[in-house]
Amino acid sequence: MTKADLVEYVAKKASLTAKASKEAVNSVFSAITDNLKKGDKVVVTGFGTFMVRTRAARKGRNPQTGAPINIPSRKTPGFTAGKALKKAIR
């Protein structure tokens, strides 16, 4: 399912216009993104939890030369599915 498909689905389910549906979907994604940027967790009860995870710094190697390199730590978005979502998929 693409974002356009999601917008269309929301428009049909909620009896909204395509424009209103697109704004609603974009608002939800924007709210999740803004809270993750602040380092907050976003909990959607029954669906799951969006959070910021930190990857530790580690050593790697350059595949061309084989020389060791240091890979710095970084933040990545993460998602953990909730009980209701897991149960629905089973």
From TrEMBL:
Keywords, comma-separated and alphabetical: DNA condensation, DNA-binding
GO cellular component, one term: cytosol
Short name of one Pfam family: Bac_DNA_binding
Keyword Metal-binding annotated: no
Gene Ontology molecular function: any one: DNA binding
InterPro entries cross-referenced by the UniProt entry: Hist_DNA-bd, Histone-like_DNA-bd_CS, IHF-like_DNA-bd_dom_sf
Any one of the GO BP annotations: chromosome condensation
Domain of life the protein comes from: Bacteria
Positions of the UniProt region annotated as Disordered: 57-90
Family, as annotated: Belongs to the bacterial histone-like protein family.
Protein name per its UniProtKB record: DNA-binding protein
Organism: Candidatus Gottesmanbacteria bacterium RBG_16_37_8
